[in-house]
Amino acid sequence: PLVLGIESSCDETAVALVRGDGTIVAQAIASQEAEHAPYGGVVPEIAARAHAERLAPMIAKVMGEADVSLDDVDAIAATAGPGLIGGVMVGLVSAKALAMASDKPLLAVNHLEGHALSPRLADRDLAFPYLLLLVSGGHCQILAVEGVGQYRRLATTIDDALGEAFDKTAKILGLGYPGGPAVERLALEGDPRAVPLPRPLKGSAEPHFSFAGLKSAVLRAVQSGAYSPADIAASFQQAAVDCLIDRLTRALRETGPMPALVVAGGVAANKTVRAALETLAGEHAMRFSAPPLALCTDNAAMIAWAGLERIARDGDDFAGDPLDFVARPRWPLDPAAEAVRGAGA
Ligand code: ATP
Ligand code: MG
Ligand code: FE
């Protein structure tokens, strides 16, 4: 099957055509970094307008490049949440219109499910179950992924997501937006042991993450004037990695042996994070899988892929979602998981 995917939940407008065998036939991605940079973060209204301007011509371009028409497409998948609701609505309504015009099924995709399954798009031998670290701008969770649609949340953040902590650290250091890649670059020139920073919840019996205290400690370190920005960036990154490893080790004690450790979401693009996770996987005799960098941050191929996973799972029983599917600003992957303080759906 061939699925058209649309992503518009944050500040990336993205369109992709993906085949059931994982071939990305064509794709386009437009970042809104320039529009949001003056504000130091994503402005929802600006994001929604930019998606509305760009999406239709991008769909036309991707279809044209692949030389396919809607007749050749088996379903139209769009992010239906969670995310900034104005942008989500632009993508979802566009997909509904295309589905209606072509009489093809609509797939309302959970953006987090797109991230969670993206490693299987890149690594076709990756089987269920796997232990997933989902680290992005809005989420920091550990999930046991048991199958398509079967996600058991083991941990979430009780305050900030890790991507958010990277972005705030970048802001404090005056590195601008988006922060993750800038902090990673600066950290290359710093000493990860130079600045004493906390590892919130490290060693704790409770399963969750916390990054607010780390962010405040970064602010105090900058204000003290005692450390170079590079040392602060490197020490922050190391503290964050130590927290990830500690919490994953705890989760593994809870699950027992798992065949694979998988990382997804924007922070998975970080090389220090990837290296530490790969080492941890090796120590536990687990396969390690991480998508290529372009599939870590927001993209439409992962949305089309999540749709294809559902088509493959359901076989002859496959049915699309109703055309009145409502965009969801919040949409947890594991609805049974208990709500915790702060963010973290
Ligand atoms: P969510 O998926 O939770 O809705 P989002 O879509 O905004 O949030 P992603 O696009 O998956 O998140 O990831 C963006 C986040 O990843 C940003 O916080 C960014 O700073 C972070 N990030 C990107 N590259 C890196 C990197 N190399 N190192 C650390 N963080 C990074
Ligand atoms: Mg983005
Ligand atoms: Fe995302």
UniProtKB/TrEMBL annotation:
Required for the formation of a threonylcarbamoyl group on adenosine at position 37 (t(6)A37) in tRNAs that read codons beginning with adenine. Is involved in the transfer of the threonylcarbamoyl moiety of threonylcarbamoyl-AMP (TC-AMP) to the N6 group of A37, together with TsaE and TsaB. TsaD likely plays a direct catalytic role in this reaction. It is found in: Cytoplasm. Fe cation binds at H111, H115, D298. PANTHER family: TRNA N6-ADENOSINE THREONYLCARBAMOYLTRANSFERASE (PTHR11735), TRNA N6-ADENOSINE THREONYLCARBAMOYLTRANSFERASE, MITOCHONDRIAL (PTHR11735:SF6). It comes from the Bacteria. It comes from Erythrobacter neustonensis. Belongs to the KAE1 / TsaD family. This is tRNA N6-adenosine threonylcarbamoyltransferase.
